[in-house]
């Protein structure tokens, strides 16, 4: 069973529907005990970093999430702000600490001629691995982004994919069983569904 963590994230139901569409056994939960028994977990997220962290703490799920990730035995997927919260801090919400599960900072996308912020739309990925989440994908798959802030990972070896939008963006990370994407697999069509299938298969292994 894949647990989709419910802390009021706006894209929660779209993630659940996409996982159900590919035939995964999925449960939306705000119960730490359910999360502790899950074979895999997803942390969705949209909106502002500070608001998301506040909502996550208020949900009572923070400790269970950190335990799940640090245990390192089962796959975990962060999506969009769900990626950002795994890191140390964000320029969007100065003074608000992230979960600090991986080293790195979330920075504002700088102004660039001809490019609008927020970054909304399809961009291709430069995949640094063709295993795990990205198994079976073409070298430069297109995926869907909606964000104004981006990750600068503290450990380059954690970066699994990048993209360019006026600046190099660390678009996906991988550390052990932990995966996270700045883009939205649940909104990325056929490629996104393959990514979710790959994730679901990790939990079955």
Fold and architecture overview:
The two termini are 12 Å apart. The chain has 205 residues and is an alpha/beta fold. It has one domain: Rossmann fold (3-Layer(aba) Sandwich), CATH 3.40.50.880. The chain is built from six helices and 13 strands. The chain is globular, with a radius of gyration of 15 Å.
List the helices and strands and how they pair.
Elements: E1 2-5, H1 12-21, E2 26-29, H2 32-37, E3 40-43, H3 49-59, H4 62-71, E4 76-79, H5 81-84, E5 89-90, E6 104-108, E7 119-124, E8 126-127, E9 142-147, E10 149-153, E11 159-164, E12 168-175, E13 178-181, H6 189-204
Features:
205 residues, alpha/beta, Rossmann fold, 8-stranded mixed beta sheet, 3-stranded mixed beta sheet, 6 helices, 13 strands, globular
In short:
With 205 residues, this protein is α/β, with parallel strands linked by helices. The chain has helices at residues 12-21, 32-37, 49-59, 62-71, 81-84, 189-204; strands at residues 2-5, 26-29, 40-43, 76-79, 89-90, 104-108, 119-124, 126-127, 142-147, 149-153, 159-164, 168-175, 178-181.
What can be said about the biggest beta sheet? Answer: 8 strands, mixed
Radius of gyration: 15 Å
Unreliable residue stretches = none
Total of domains: 1
Q: Give the strand line-up of the largest sheet.
A: 2-1-3-4-13-12-11-8
Structural class: alpha/beta
Order of helices and strands: EHEHEHHEHEEEEEEEEEH
Q: What is the CATH homology-level superfamily?
A: Class I glutamine amidotransferase (GATase) domain
Q: Characterize the overall form.
A: globular
Q: If classified by CATH, what would the architecture be?
A: 3-Layer(aba) Sandwich
Number of beta strands? 13
Q: What's the number of helices?
A: 6
CATH topology assignment? Rossmann fold
- The overall average pLDDT, rounded, is 95
Distance between the termini: 12 Å
Strand content: 25-35%
């Amino acid at each position: 069973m894949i647990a989709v963590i419910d802390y009021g994230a706006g894209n929660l139901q779209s993630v659940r529907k996409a996982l159900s569409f590919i035939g995964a056994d999925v449960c939306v939960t705000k119960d730490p005990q359910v999360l502790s028994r899950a074979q895999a977990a997803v942390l969705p997220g949209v909106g502002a970093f500070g608001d998301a962290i506040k909502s996550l703490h208020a949900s009572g799920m923070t400790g269970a999430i950190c335990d799940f990730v640090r245990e390192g035995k089962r796959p975990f997927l962060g999506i969009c702000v769900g990626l950002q919260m795994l890191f140390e801090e964000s320029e969007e919400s100065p003074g608000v600490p992230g979960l600090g599960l991986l080293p790195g900072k979330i920075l504002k996308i700088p102004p660039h001629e001809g490019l609008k912020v927020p970054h909304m739309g399809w961009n291709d990925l430069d995949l640094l691995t063709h295993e795990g989440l990205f198994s079976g994908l073409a070298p430069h798959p297109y995926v869907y982004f909606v964000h104004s802030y981006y990750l600068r990972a503290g450990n380059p070896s954690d970066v699994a994919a990048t993209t360019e939008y006026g600046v190099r963006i660390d678009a996906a990370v991988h550390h052990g069983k932990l995966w996270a994407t700045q883009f939205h697999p649940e909104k990325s069509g056929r490629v996104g569904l393959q990514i979710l299938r790959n994730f679901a298969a990790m939990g079955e292994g």
